[in-house]
Amino acid sequence: MPRHLRVGSRLFFYESQSRKEIVGEARIIEVRLGTDAEVLARYSDRLFLTSTEFEEYVGNRKGKQLLILVVENPKRYKTPMKTAKPITMSGQYMTLEAYRALQA
Q1: I need a labelling partner for 49 at 20 to 30 A (CA). Which of 1, 11, 14, 57 fits?
Q2: Residue 53 sits in which domain range?
């Protein structure tokens, strides 16, 4: 499990298509691992993805452990924040200083 992901941390939503901007955030309230079946059994009505998107995301990883982040208070920014460089699918840990630099 990624060591920087912990309860209370902020999770930023990054739009990677054409905009390449941070478009919102939420607070992480639970970090765990589980299979796709466990995710559907426990969170099916609260998934961030549609059932079709979830199936496409899981793909050939059925039965393997997935990282599960449960969040609260998701919000979309009125003005998205531009990043200096694109962020990979694995994400990026952001220090408080890096976050403040984005807001400048």
Answers
A1: 1
A2: 10-103
